[in-house]
Backbone:
């Protein structure tokens, strides 16, 4: 229970930071895919979204 509350708090923080940055909507969608992949235990989805997010962050 505490772990899911921590993930929700971290997701809210990350999404609020992304909303204020250059990355915007695409970054928010990628972060949602990462969290959804982790939550559903789909490692390919989570890793793929994390790689695309890292590439996007390096270009920003």
Residues:
């Amino acid at each position: 229970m505490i772990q899911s509350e921590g993930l929700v708090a971290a997701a809210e923080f990350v999404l609020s930071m992304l909303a204020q940055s250059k990355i915007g909507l695409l970054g928010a969608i990628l972060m949602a895919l990462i969290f959804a992949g982790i939550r559903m235990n789909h490692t390919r989805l989570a890793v793929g979204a994390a790689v695309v997010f890292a590439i996007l962050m390096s270009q920003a």
Notes: Residues 2-59 form one domain.
